[in-house]
Amino acid sequence: MPAPNERSDGTPMIVDHSQIPEDTAVGQIAALEKDLFGRGAWSEQSVRQEFHAPARTYLLDIEGDAVQTTDPVVRGYAGYWYDGDDAEIMTIGVGRPYQRQGIAAALLETLIVSARRQGAKRMLLEVRVDNVPALALYERFGFTRMGLRKRYYQPEGIDAYTMSLDLEPRVVGFSATADTEHTSATHNGAAMSEPIVLGIESTCDETAAAVVQGRTLISNVVASSMDEHARYGGVIPEIASRAHAEAFVPCVSKALADANMTLSDVDAIAVSAGPGLAGCLAVGVSGVKSLAWAANKPIYGINHVIGHIAVTQLQFGPFPKDTLALIVSGGHTSLLHVEDVARHIDVVGTTLDDAAGECFDKVARLLGFPYPGGPHIDRHAQLGNPHAIKVPQGLTQGKAGQQHPYDFSFSGVKTAVARWIEQQQAEGNEIPIDDVCASLADSVATVLAKKAMRGCEQYGSKTLIVGGGFSANSQLRAKLLEVGAKHGVEVRIPQIKLCTDNGAMVAMLGVNLVESGVKPSEPDFAIDSAMPLTKISM
Length: 538
Prior knowledge:
Blueprint lengths: L13 E3 L5 H16 L6 H9 L3 E7 L11 E9 L3 E9 L8 H16 L3 E7 L3 H9 L3 E10 L4 E9 L8 E2 L19 E6 L4 E8 L2 E9 L1 H5 L6 H22 L9 E7 L3 H18 L3 E5 H7 L2 H4 L6 E6 L4 E8 L3 E7 L5 H11 L7 H8 L16 H6 L7 H16 L6 H27 L3 E5 L6 H14 L2 E3 L10 H13 L23
Parallel strand pairs: 4-5, 9-12, 12-13, 14-17, 17-18
Antiparallel strand pairs: 1-2, 2-3, 3-4, 5-7, 6-7, 8-11, 9-10, 10-11, 14-15, 15-16
Helix pairs in contact: 1-2, 6-7, 8-16, 10-13, 11-14, 14-15
């Protein structure tokens, strides 16, 4: 069957949105949106913003075979967002006169092909529960229902199903994210100047294993149980622990297989010993202790948070002297001075209440977004006005700012946003979700950037390391790069797949410990769910 964009008999003719004049595409899509979706339709401004937003792919079905016409007619449109493992469909629409002609199916088919080519492992979407034709279309292409989002479609307050489609075969229930650039690497057992470390991660809802040699990522496998927690609005420790027990052996086996190695080939094994959920940590640590005993290998119980710092070396190389690190995640927001990543780290500042990621998750629940809420706030923020709502910036001004120059506080941010939403609802106003998300993201990113730059100035650091799951947020990444350029600070933010929990970060810190001659952990070392950031290994 010919590709959709090659058809010339009145059936779909699909092109990239850039192949026709932007004003034409924007105007026609906005008109279709208004007709199809009424009060919930995108404006011309929203459509144009989507076209220019990062990590977007938008396709159009046009009437006829040629795109170089003076006035091409857009019959249908579709787009998705992809900046990591998952691609998320933003919209699919077909004009009423052109429906039931296979256009929506052709657009969806092309989206799937495009996302798979870009490396996406899964495709996600939301659909109204009462949109029977759309549900039938998605199910025909293999999408399955994941959960329900109450009152997702506004202003009608219609519920939405969340659906997903695996874009690559899954192995025993987990997704392999091996770095294809390195999976063919071999190890012949000869003496090597750079240590080979197997790293294993199980602090929360990801079971992960990776092999790192020196500063080279050889393999990286991640199994996530996030979908199992989404229905509960957060991670359930018992479910997560059970998922770790099921995925541990497959993850480790695949990581070694992708690296073309066995346990005998590695020089050491590293595992996250804390901080994290106690039950989850216990699964990973007990499993690694068994591996180390069986293979007679040294073991390092490492600090999971410091691993988020170490992993940047895979992309940027060794740390310069007097490096500062900003750790931002659902559980941590801290500013650290890295004197020696293997031996000495000082805490410069930390959160006094909510972490940045925790703040986002709480606001996301207020807006009706499912767990995890951060990616949804990120997506909507890219479409909104960051100055539409006044959101406080805690501990940045006055006496509190002077007393806590490097500490963070985000509980007041969540409260302020919640009160604003409540006030708007009480007045009968529609909640501008995009503007709320943009204003929140800008406030949090500004605080983090200001305090990070202040710390760099105090410590004379020209390098800022950024790590943790929240560092995947596009507004934060842009803000840090912007202020870093103004202050002459190199901001090192790892690629998206290395921001979230993974085995590569554990293995990389293990490499640092081996290279520095740090004594391995005792065979019977204990986990520490509240492991302090100044403690690098057990």
